Structures are given as structure tokens and as C-alpha cells.
Amino acid sequence: MSAFGNILGIRATLLLGREAVVLPAPLEAMEAIEEIEVRQAMKKDSGFKITLLAGREGPLGAFGPPFVNDPRFQRGARVVVVVWNGVMPTPIFDGVVTKTQYIPGEGSNEGKYLMLGRDLTFVMDREQKRAQHPAQDETVIMNAMALKYATYGVIPVIMPPPVIDPPIPVDRTPQQTCTDLAYAKKMAKRHGYQVFIDPGPAPGISQLYFGPVPRPGLPQKPISVNLGPMSDAYDVTINHDGETLTAARAKVHDRSTGQVVPLEIPTSTNTPMSALSDALTQIGNTKTKEIETSGLNTAQVLARLMAEVNEPAERVLEVSGTIDNTRYNAVLKPYYAVPIRGLGMIYNGTYTVAEVRHVLKPGSYTQTFALQRDGLYPILPAVAPEVSPL
Q1: Of 159, 229, 313, 381, whose CB has the highest number of CB atoms within 10 Å?
Q2: Distances (CA, A) of 341 to 329, 335, 375
Q3: What is the pLDDT of residues 236-264, one digit of tens each?
């Protein structure tokens, strides 16, 4: 029996190791867990904090508290957190310990040992390098980049950008002068994409995703609010702010044709997630940005204009709250779509999950969430099927 419940309930499994090899944590470590906190977000670094009770007791207490001298619990160790709903495992985090903290306390059971870390993007951000990528567009570069981290179980899931501009070696060669993570984020920003490492579909395997959000796939299990015994979320807050909306324009002196080409993107080009998108209803009433185009061709500027307009349009409407997982009985994953119901017709519908904070303790599991979309009213009058992504 796990410290977090029985085999038919909600349980947690902790896997530890180095790079490719991760094994279940020893029983004494699972019994010592006081809290596991995992944070996954679009705009922040994803990280975790594991708190273990580590009092000095028993005949080996003179050698120090448990876990402190075990390399599986030290900086550089790999940590995989898996949540089980019944018999279905769902990895919610795969990362590396970057910091540890020991609080001795005064009694045998009062000491605490904290492990803090980041997801596997941390290993992509350790080495600053200079590299060239001749005749390679973003899709090719990202696939090659993922292969470098195959020892961590990373596999590529790369979506082609909406505007493809293959570099011709006699014209230009992409230059990298930063870490792989920083370079991947630069490429993603040019197209309004996101780059992240998604744990799963199996423990020890992760996906390096490069593409739009929400990530393509079936929506997750719906969140229910204020629906009596069907409710599984509480403390819900809704914010509607259209001040971030913008249009973008530029004049391009295309070096390949020698012509000056005016370009303008008045509104978001993303597929709307609402029936009444603010980006469409507010055309002409938003601020306009002038984009710097020095040294860029028409295709490159067009991609940057689309990214500049699309990103703020995706977060006009924001919903935050907390899920009671004893009722929800599923794992909410960031970057995917999720329906929410019980907020009234104007706010019901499908959103993108922008952030999730998991808190697991013996006897409880909650998820704090932040959702976003582009406007009011759902596109479909009915809730989508309750199918979670792999």
C-alpha cells in the first residue's frame, strides 16, 4: 500500500536515477514524503519541490540523517513523479535535482530534507555553445536537437511553422551562440510557438514539443464548477482583459527582390477557441506595433508579425481555480485544451491550460490551474467527450 492511497485510489510513485536509468524510490523514502509540489507553466520554468522527513534516529543516526549521503537524492539526480488514478499511470514531472536543503530540527522526526529542481529543459540549458545550422529550417534543427537528449528518454514532437523559410547557404546560415534551450525558444518566438518538454506517455519517456498551443489532440476531462455533487473545482476566478490585444505592421525592404513591401496583420490568425473572439470584435480598436525589419526578408517578417499579434490574443480571458482530485480523478496537463462547465454560457467552453500546480500529500491531492482563451461564449453548446491525452 502506498503512502498516498490504495491501489484503487489516487497514488504517487517516485522514480530516481541518473540520465536513462530511473528506478522506484526505496520504501523508506516513500514513507518519509511529507509533500510533493510540481509546477508546470507556459511562461515560467517548470519545477518541483519534494519534502522528506529526515530526523536522525536508530543505530545509524550518528552517521547523519537519511537521504543526505545518498547520490539518488543529491544534485544532478533525475526525478520522475507519476500519479496513478486507479491502474492508469500518468507522469506529471521528469526533471533534475538542482538544489537540496537540510533542516536538522531538534527531534528524531522533526528534521526535513528538501529536493528542488527543474524539468528536463534544465539539461538543454547547461551548455552555451557556438554552432551553425546550414540549410536547416526550424523543423530540422529541432529534430536534431532532440536527438542530443535521447539518453534522458526525450523524443521529438515537432510541428512545422506556419511560415517556412528554408535558409539557402549562399544567402544565410542560422547561427547559434547560446544554449539549446535559449535557441529553441528564439525559434519558437518567431512563429508564436511554444517549446517545452512534456513528461510521458510512459514513465522515463518525455516529448520535446515545438508547436502551437493548445497542443493538438483530444480535450482533457472537463472541469465542473458549481454543479452540486458533480463539482470538482472551487475558488474559481475569471478575468477578462482586452488591453493586451495588438495589431502589427512593417515595411520590408526584401533583399531577394529589392522591393519595399508593406505588411500588416490586423488581428489574430489562430483558430478561435471561442464563439466571440475579442481579436475579431475589436479589429481597428487595438494598439498597433511597428516591427523592426532590418536584414529580414518578407517571409521572416510575416512570421514575426503573426507571432506578435497571436500571442496576446490567446490570453484575453483567464480562469484560475483549484481542483479536488478525489472528485476529478484525472491529471490536468498544461498546454492541452480542457473544457470547463458551470460558469454560465458566457464563460463555459474550451480553454488552453496555461499553468498547473500539483500538491500531493499523504491523504490529499490538489491541482491549482490557470486557463486562457481568446474570448467569450463556447463554440460548441455541448461539452466534449471526457478523453484525456496520452
Answers
A1: 313
A2: 16, 19, 16
A3: 999 998 788 889 898 887 666 677 888 88
